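Dear colleagues,

I hope this message finds you well. In preparation for our joint manuscript, I am sending the Potassium channel family protein (Dactylosporangium cerinum) sequence together with its predicted structure, so that both groups work from identical material. I would be grateful if you could confirm receipt.
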Amino acid sequence: MRRFVVWGDNALARRLVGELINSYGAQVTVIVPSLTQNLAPEIAELCAPDPWSMVVQERRLSAATFLRPELAEAEAIAFVDADDVANVDAALIARETLPDVRVVLRMFNTVLGEGVASRLRNCAVLSASEIAAPAFVAAALGDNTPTSIRLTDGQQLMAVDRDAAVLSVSDIRCGLAITATGESLPADDDAADLVLVSTYGHPLPAPRRVGRHPLRTTRLVLKGGLRRVLVGVAALIGTGTVVVAAVKDLSPWRALYVTVLTTLGGANADLGARRVSQAVDLALVVAGVAVIPAVTAAVVNTLVKARLKIAAGGLAVPVGNHVIVIGLGNVGARVVQELHDQGIDVVAVDRSSTARGVAVARSLGIPVILGDARDTETLDAASVTTARCLVMVTTDDVTNLEAALLARSLRADLRVVLRLFEEDFARRIKVAFGINHSRSVSYLAAPAFAASMVGSEVIDTIPVGRRVLLVAEVRVGAHSRLEGRPFHEVNVVNEIRLVAVQTGRPGLEQGVQTFWWPERNRGRTLDRAHTLVVVATRAGLVSLLERAA
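The corresponding structure tokens are as follows:
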């Protein structure tokens, strides 16, 4: 029986342990810093029915930890703590002790992750937030948001709504899902409304970047008290112009000229003028004395407030049809980035100015509201009544639900996407409150981590509702049940769809060759030099790995 090790006591660790035990029938040893804190007790409950799976306590990892017999026999170790540095440190300790074990790292920092993966042999680096973010974005924008996928040979695929696809029918590689019924990988490709297309030879348009509006500062200045002062000055000058034209018998332009100079610049006394004319001059001079300081004070006050607001990154001008993202942790930061890349206006909200996504949002010029989303003032500041969607991705289910219900009380038809851990809880929320869109980060990410631990290279995931389809590369093993079998026998309705077969390896002289539409190559058979590119459900990938081993 296969044995794996998981280090961590969070939601992803819990879901990953369940995936390995229930889907792969594996023995799992879980290392936690405390048996009573965080989700360690729940993880222990998952392991309890299996006499070979266990939870061990190690307050601090060391080389001695990995010398324990149950750890030394492991095929792979997953380090899924929320701290990138802690995961890297733990992986380095494990590699020193167990040089041949496969290491799977959870990391948010992709640059650091690529560096670690290139230096640690037999190592895979995955980001739970990167895997889950497209599902939240798709739910926010309408569930069929295009998902881009790049294969190891550089070719690119895209999951798109069939009606929105601008490519020819020959570019469709397979049907992914019938979203109305939730059926994945149907037998009839033509029935699927979510399809996988090849973008080879069809350059993708660059994402529309949303920059600062060129008149943003002007709009900030011309608002509030300053606007009222300027309107008053304009009314005074207009009235003065009419009076001067009538009293002094001047043309409209000359009357305006005299009025503006007199009001803003003072006037020379004219003792020979008529009394009515002198009275008008006096009134304008007195008004000018009052107007100039008022305008100066209003301009200074407004400019200072505008400067402070822009510097703080808050919502400085009214917006509409935007997406509000509440919770700027790892997932929130990814969601904000992806929405921005797709040209969607975003307003970000978090209680803490030190949250990871705050710096990300401000670097993109996205307004950031610092406050509690459970307060009406915070939601009003984010302009919730004019938003197209509210995405709640804090790590607390209760906070997410509370803020969502408050937002719905302010606008009943607001589209809401919730981050919820438990699927049963999400189902009850849907029935009780009519909130139809909820996602679980650990539920979306765990299948990719589990598949990576057993040796499959998960390229990407395609969100379909609360679940994901896995895009994976699986090598055909020598003497496996797949070797010598026709290409089309890889397919299993509703579970596995073969997209392409690759020959060769990256870095070799001949490089990688990709055969698309394998069903057209029914005369060809698989051999140990082939790598399968498949789209699969979690159960489908498990069965395929068994056949390819």
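For the figure legend, we might mention the following. Residues 405 and 503 are 53 Å apart (CA to CA). DSSP finds 17 helices and 22 strands in the chain.

With kind regards,
E.M.
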